[in-house]
Amino acid sequence: MFIGTFTAIVTPFRDGCVDDDALAALVKAQIDGGVDGIVPVGTTGESPTVSVEEHISIIASSVKHAAGKIKVIAGTGANATEEAIYLTRQAEEAGADGSLQVAPYYNRPTQEGLFQHFKAIADSTKLPILLYSIPGRCGVEIAIETVVRLAQACPNIVGIKEAGGSVDRVSQLRQVVAPEFVILSGDDALTLPFMAVGAKGVISVASNIIPQEVSLLVKTFLQGDAAGALKIHERLYPIFKDLFVESNPVPVKAALALLGRMSEEARLPLVPLSDKSREILRATLTRSGVLQP
User: Fold this and answer.
1) What is the pLDDT of residues 22-43, one digit of tens each?
2) Domain coordinates in residue numbering, the chain
3) Is 185 helix (H, G, I), strand (E, B) or coil?
4) For a tag on the chain, would you pick the N or C end, based on fewer CB atoms within 10 A?
5) Of 71, 161, 219, 253, which residue is the catalytic one?
6) What is the CATH number assigned to the segment(s) 4-223?
7) Rounded Cα distance, 101 and 147, in Å
8) Residues 151-176: b if buried by 16+ CB within 10 A, e if exposed
């Protein structure tokens, strides 16, 4: 169901407000770039710092701008189960194609708590759900055993975004989940290694600026050309690396601003890219041919 390249799309701000015109242009660029879908209001979309009203509005706008041409997997996770249920129901009403559910952060539930949390959300909606394991940000990993329990208990939990950095974990998951259960890489730099052991694509930060190139990498591998995919990976790797020179999404917003596509404005506690990091990013984008010298 969710196979290919899905852009973890940024939320453009201007003067403190969501810039819907810039969002529309970004979504159009994703469609033109050949991605399979977008993921609004995830980590890259600054979900922790938008209001509930803005969160729902961004999802609705993303659905409108996508216009059925690409899928919209709405980021509707939260560290409060009732809030996640509310956001997910709103996303379903807005016409989203699926929901991305991050592990609850800060409150650090047990594995039983994680199971009950995700099951309650799945039971509240007909949307297909992707789990999102990112222990570096959440302080808790969705254990493989918990993923299996959820996949068996909830037919609409159809996959997982893996952002823990472990190729071995992808192999472990692939051993115990059904073939149709989708694993997507949560790190651009690990897309190719993850796909080599059974992942089916990526939820990408880099595709905000290079959608065509990331899509080509994924499609090339899925078509059986591992050597060709490796060549693309090697060419794009410096971009993948330097888009994380500081906390995401600050560098990718700076890159989009350098390309003239939107303001780089982010919300506190995120701050503008440092001068040193900006020069690193500018040099990488220039060497890669993304930015004209």
Assistant:
1) 999 999 999 999 999 999 999 9
2) 4-223
3) strand
4) C
5) 161
6) 3.20.20.70
7) 12
8) beebeebbbbbbbbebbebbeebeee
